[in-house]
Design a protein that fits this description.
The chain has 169 residues and is α/β, with parallel strands linked by helices. It has helices at 29-42, 80-94, 110-121, 135-143, 147-154, and strands spanning 19-23, 46-52, 101-107, 125-129, 159-162.
Length: 169
């Protein structure tokens, strides 16, 4: 294949950008390790993305273009707790964040937030865990499609689904 100046392979959605892995509140070590190995093999930076679905995107525009501000200017310290827990779990697998990996905390619908991050970073691909097993997870999928199923419908870049290991289900 020929390398194009835009960072894409000719006729492909693959780019040279970072690799994004969507991680839940309790990141499965197998998913994180698999994404890290893939990023290392590609020579790409790994961006671990934790999406808080209970939050919502209120400030998508740059600060200089917004015409309003939050009525509550105090930061929500409690909202930082999940991010600290996720970072700690990631560090147990990946070591200290820096040149090889970083953490981004996002809000809103998980697939849409991951897609926005991939677009804004020029990501090569998005890695997510496969659907969880169990009755509770099955019921959840009845109400709402899995993240991976929704991502492949809205994303033009590759979406890599890593099946859950039996001990991580």
């Amino acid at each position: 294949m020929n390398d194009l100046p835009s960072g894409r392979y000719e006729g492909s959605a693959w780019t040279y950008g970072p690799l994004i892995v969507g991680v839940p509140w309790e990141p499965p070590p197998g998913l994180v390790a698999c994404a890290a190995e893939l990023a290392d093999g590609l020579g790409a930076h790994l961006v671990c993305a934790f999406v808080d679905p209970s939050g919502y995107l209120a400030e998508f525009d740059a600060a200089r273009t917004r015409t309003a501000a939050s009525m509550d200017p105090q930061p929500n310290v409690e909202s930082l707790f999940p991010a600290a827990e996720v970072r700690s779990a990631l560090q147990a697998v990946l070591g200290t964040p820096g040149e090889t990996w970083s953490l981004r905390v996002l809000n809103g619908s998980v697939p849409e937030a991951l897609a926005r991050l991939a677009d804004s970073t020029g990501a090569a691909a998005i890695v997510v865990g496969g659907p969880r097993n169990g009755a509770r997870a099955s019921f959840s999928r009845l109400l709402e499609r899995s993240v991976s199923a929704r991502l492949v419908r809205i994303q033009r870049r590759p979406v890599i689904v890593v099946p859950a290991l039996p001990r991580e289900s």
